[in-house]
Amino acid sequence: MATGQKAQTISAPWSILRPKGRRHKDLYVALLFLAPSLLGLFLLQVLPIGTALVLGVSEWNIIDPIKFVGLSNFVEVATDATFYHTLENTLYLTVGLEVLNTLLGLCAALLLKNAMRGIDLYRTIYFLPLITTWAAVAIAWRYMYSLEGPINALLGPLGIDPIPWLSRPEWAMPAVIITITWKTLSWKTIILLAGLQSIPNEFYEASSIDGASRWQQFWKITLPLLSPAMFFALIIGIINTLQLFDPIFIMTDGGPADSTRTLSYYIYTRGFQNLRMGYAAALSWVLFAIILLFTLIQWVLQKRWVFYQ
Amino acid sequence: MKLRRRETVSLQLVTALGAAALLFPFLWMISASLQTLQEVEAFPPIWIPEVPQWTNYVEAVVNYNIGRALLNSAIVTTVSVVGQLTVCSLGAYAFSRLRFPGRDAIFLLFLATMMIPHYVTIIPLYTMVWSAGLIDTYTALIFPGLFSPFGTFLLRQFFNQIPISLDEATLIDGGNHWHIYLYVIMPLSRAGLGALGIFSFLGIWNTLFWPVLVINSKELFTLPLALAMAQGQFITLIHIQMAGSVIACVPVILVFLMLQKQFISSIALSGMKQ
Questions:
Q1: Taking 90 as the threshold, does the pLDDT of residue A259 lie above it?
Q2: Where would I find the ABC transmembrane type-1 domain in this sequence (chain B) (predicted)?
């Protein structure tokens, strides 16, 4: 404090601009430490977000001059049949993925919670799909799904005829959902496992003394106490699903017959395959609105099922 | 909970079955990468190649651009991860340790941008890169990875757990903020830096969308892009493609095995990232 005042008495007239007091004492140091981050924030977030606002009300194919078109992009979205179709696909994918991921993720978490022989190895194996490169594994899955591929070969002995996984509209989305479940399942598992490990053991001990069965313990203790973790995983999981790109790009390119073209992949199609930057930007704001809406709805609904200790 | 012996055995069995199902695509990938073209196209599928064709890997690296792509991925990922750790830790230090006007407002802005989906910013980012004439350059591949609001946030949380008395001790000894950052905060935040390091490593190594947009020439392909493009060009050479896929997966698996603990605890902590 003393040095700060001393500096002020001998400094130039413009020192009046220099903020006073303890709250400001680190301003210059802070600017140095923050400079790279602020530059990054400006170039990678603020400027692009501002540009996206402008693009949303413009027509631009990158080559010709940009043209202001008002809200006509959004009017077009509202009457775009493909948009509604991709919205349906997105809903199908999101619901299918969340149901499978939550059920299987919970099973995996309940299994991996136990101290058994080789548990470290099992955990590593369960987490492997999550970390590996989407492009690499999606190509493998694409071949595995071929008519004469290993998956149909495994299903054959069970009496199931070869399934045209990726070549028929009715099978493509289930195939994509299975692959994404395989890849992202353990993300759910990690969150739920952390939730399970935070439930105090005394609850189980006390209830078994009272004669509760395993099944009762699961419904009355595990599930309610796990609900905050499930809620968290649901919100983040949906946000991630709404932005998936790699598996669709590699496995189906949105086809066959648009059956796997999700809203996010439609943004890519419009922007980078048809070079309609303005329309793609408008669609991306619609995606943002949907994410916001989904999150708000879940936030309101959580009172009904999420139990905080 | 005490488990009976019969239960333990059945639990182990179910866990092992799940592990086998999750491993199956990897095993098929490795097996296919070691087969001849004839074997890989056979029906019913051949599970184990008669003679492992290790030359598939040589061919993928030398003749199908995987070697160059591996080098590009290594360069881009190394520069981005080191850069991101530096930029984010400096920023996080300011938010955790310094007092300045508007600190909380700026931090809130960082958090707010995390809510905006990738798709909103990637279109303008592409047009910016295009206008700047940076399409088909390493700069275009690297610069989006140098900064991350999430990384700044994550490191700030770790820095906040370090007692402030250590800063004061350094100041009394005549040190300044640079010394505190370099000799106190960074060495004590290895867990946090490790966590952010593995997140950014996996994110950048695996990323496909951004390279798809900004890279056209083969010399600049990263591994995921090379794999995706090979799929279009050499659609029939499954064995070569699978060799490339295995090559792409090995580095991430190695890094994961080294930093598994940090990775899992940080996902549980922050919910990032698919």
A1: yes
A2: 70-259
Closest CA–CA distance from residue A274 to any residue of chain B (Å): 13
Window 54-73 of A, Cβ < 8 Å to B: 55, 60, 62
The domains of chain A are located at 2-56, 74-305
Say how many CA atoms lie within 13 Å of B194 toward its Cβ: 17
Identify which of A126, A142, A239 has the shortest CB distance to residue B22. Answer: A126
Contact A133 B252 (CB under 8 A): yes
Cβ–Cβ contacts within 10 Å for residue B171, how many? Answer: 13
Residue A5 pLDDT grade (very low, low, confident, very high; cuts 50, 70, 90): very low
Provide the whole-model pTM.
0.89
- ipTM metric: 0.89
Q: Tokens 């989305």 correspond to what residue?
A: A173
Q: Would you call B117 and A291 a contact, using CB atoms and an 8 Å cutoff?
A: yes
For residue B154 the two structure tokens come to: 């994550």
For residue A274, give the DSSP letter.
S
Percentages of chain B per state (helix, strand, coil), in multiples of 5: 75, 0, 25
Task: State the smallest CA–CA distance between residue A121 and chain B in angstroms.
Answer: 9
Per-residue pLDDT tens digits for A173-215: 999 999 999 999 999 998 999 889 888 888 999 998 988 888 8
* Tokens encoding B240: 């070569």
Instruction: Return d(Cα A242, Cα A91) in angstroms, integer.
Output: 9
* pLDDT value at A115 more than 50: yes
Comparing C-alpha atoms, which of A117, A127, A106 is closest to residue A192?
A106
Give the number of A-B residue pairs with CB atoms closer than 8 Å.
Answer: 286
Q: Do B123 and A281 touch (CB under 8 A)?
A: yes
- For B63-270, CATH gives 1.10.3720.10
Interface of A with B in 166-195 (CB under 8 A): 182, 184-185, 187, 190-191, 193-194
Crossing angle of helices B149-160 and B190-206, rounded to 10°: 170
Tokens found for residue A119:
């548990």
The C-alpha atoms of residue A16 and residue B59 are separated, in whole angstroms, by 70
Whole-angstrom distance, CA of residue A3 vs CA of residue A222: 59
- Tell me which of B31, B38, B65, B100 to substitute to probe the interface with A (most A C-beta atoms closer than 10 Å): B100
CA distance B245 to chain A (A): 4
Tell which residue, B144, B258, B152, B157, has the closest CA to residue B203: B144
* Chain B contact probe: residue of A38, A97, A143, A218 with most B CBs at under 10 A: A143
Domain A74-305 superfamily per CATH: MetI-like (1.10.3720.10)
Instruction: Please give the Cα distance from A56 to A68 (Å, whole number).
Output: 9
Distance of CA A23 to the CA centre of its chain: 38
Domain boundaries, chain B: 63-270
Query: Closest Cα partner for A109 from B23, B18, B7?
Result: B18
CB contact under 8 A, B147 and A139: no
What pLDDT, on a 0 to 100 scale, did the predictor assign at position A3? Answer: 40
Contact A45 B245 (CB under 8 A): no
Q: Do A135 and B257 touch (CB under 8 A)?
A: no
For residues B194 and A110, what is the distance between their CA atoms, to the nearest angstrom? Answer: 28
Which residue ranges of chain B lie beneath pLDDT 70? Answer: 1-3, 232-235, 269-274
